[in-house]
Amino acid sequence: MKKVISIVGARPNFMKIGPFHKALRQSSLDVKHLICHTGQHYDQNMSKIFFDDFELPSPDFYLGVGSGSHAEQVAKIMMSFEKIVENEKPDLIIVVGDVNSTMAGSLVAAKMGIKVAHIEAGLRSFDRTMPEEINRIVTDSIADYLFVTERSGLVNLKNEGVSSNKIFFVGNIMIDSLVHYLSKASSSLILDRLNLKKQSYLLVTLHRPSNVDDKENLKATAHLLKNLAKSIKIVFPIHPRTKENLEKYGLDATLNHEIEFTEPLGYIDFLCLQKNAEVILTDSGGIQEESTYLGVQCVTMRDNTERPVTVEMGTNHLAGKDVNNVQAKILAVLSGQKKAGKIPELWDGKAANRIVNYLSDLL
Ligand code: UD1
Questions:
Q1: Which of 49, 22, 16, 40 is nearest to 270 (CA)?
Q2: Do domains 2-171+347-362 and 182-334 have the same CATH topology?
Q3: Which of 27, 56, 162, 181 has a beta carbon 3.0–4.6 Å from 157's, enabling a disulfide?
Q4: Which residues does the chain have with pLDDT short of 70?
Q5: Which are the catalytic amino acids?
Q6: What is the pLDDT of residue 150?
Q7: pTM of the predicted structure, to 2 decimals
Q8: Domain ranges within the chain, ordered by starting residue
Q9: Residue 195 and residue 142: Cα distance in Å, rounded?
Q10: Contact 3/335 with Cβ under 8 angstroms?
Q11: Exposed, middle or buried by CB within 10 Å (0-12, 13-18, 19+), for 245?
């Protein structure tokens, strides 16, 4: 029997490992799959809720690293994970996405001579001020198998000199979760709970350090949201980083009257909110993709995206970080300037099966 350890740690990892775990269990492969949770995210609604949503077993290992500087977080993960790898001697380590846990896990694997596979490889924003871009570059440069979600990833990896026999175009595993849980999301009670009508609200998620850590930027964003609230109802499930900073800079009190803030939501409720939004404002990576699959208009408050297919083919509008441009883009969408959008290639709910099929040869 072969042994595979998957490492996860932060919210956007869980919807990617859920389908992989299920596909592996349903396959005929003789594999023991162990899950290691680093504890990068630890609050109930940033972590545990997703294990329930995605029907994942409790993690086999919990490292409890918690928050900290990037160096601290990565170092703690590496030190603890190294011991687990030493004891377990897996045949393969799986990392997903682009968070600190992804890079830390792949470094341990590579240093210990264990094969490592990266799911969601090849994405590039070409913006090295983003912590995730560093994580993506490091992980892809040492991974043995690279599973790619969109064609831009194939081009990026080729340009970086990655040999083509390590690269597998499998589609988007996060969309596997979306496809699987979409009907369940229709029975979510979140719209009633928040007193919302379908296609009548702007759904906001903003948490990137470049948007929410700097006081002046956050002030400008708060002003933008106040302005937009005159045109449309706003719902904002708020990330702990953003909440902390709004409070720190004294910006929360004025916004509380204009905006429906909620705690971070579970997957099913959030999917329901995405599906029924008139428009979404985000700086997340995954939401750009989910909205494209759902055909919902998404305005991305960033200067670049590592997921260009969502702009070229999907319903994503890249608005930049200037709040005036963002406001103009949202108002344009509300006045009917919408993108038709198509679902990208291989975003069909079967990416995890393709990965497992490849692994049956690679393991
Ligand atoms: C991390 C990822 C980012 C991803 C995001 C999704 C990195 C470099 N960044 O950013 O790519 O888009 O997760 O959420 O890996 N906190 C809590 N409870 C938690 C977790 C965090 O309160 O369960 C607070 C802490 O104050 C912490 C802050 O949020 O300092 C930021 O958490 P951290 O994990 O450092 O980065 P994220 O901003 O969540």
A1: 49
A2: yes
A3: 162
A4: none
A5: 207
A6: 98
A7: 0.96
A8: 2-171+347-362, 182-334
A9: 48
A10: no
A11: buried
For the CA atoms of 72, 208, 45, 349, the dihedral, rounded to the nearest 10 degrees, stands at -110
Read off the tokens for 168: 């597998």
Task: Name the residue at shortest CA distance from atom 17 of ligand 1.
Answer: 240
Contact of 56 with 21, CB cutoff 8 Å: yes
**pLDDT tens digits along 47-74:** 999 999 999 999 999 999 999 999 999 9
Query: What integer pLDDT is reported at residue 270 of this predicted model?
Result: 98
Sheet (strand 61-62) strand order: 61-62, 31-37, 2-8, 92-96, 115-121, 145-148, 167-169
Query: What is the architecture of the domain spanning 2-171+347-362?
Result: 3-Layer(aba) Sandwich (3.40)
User: Which residue in the block uniquely carries the two structure tokens 């500087």?
Assistant: 69
CATH 3.40.50.2000 fits 182-334, yes or no: yes
Write the residue with the smallest CA distance to atom 13 of ligand 1. 10
* Contact assessment for residue 236 and residue 261, using Cβ atoms and an 8 Å cutoff: yes
Closest residue CA from atom 7 of ligand 1? 99
List all residues whose CB is within 6 A of at least one atom of ligand 1.
Answer: 10-12, 40-43, 46, 67, 99-100, 131-132, 207, 239-241, 244
Classify 233 as helix, strand or coil.
Answer: strand
Amino acid 254: pLDDT: 84
SS3 for 240-303 is: HHHHHHHHHCCCHHHHHHHCEEECCCCHHHHHHHHHHCCEEEECCCHHHHHHHHHCCEEEECCC
Mutate to test the pocket of ligand 1, among 15, 62, 69, 99 (most ligand atoms within 8 A of CB): 99
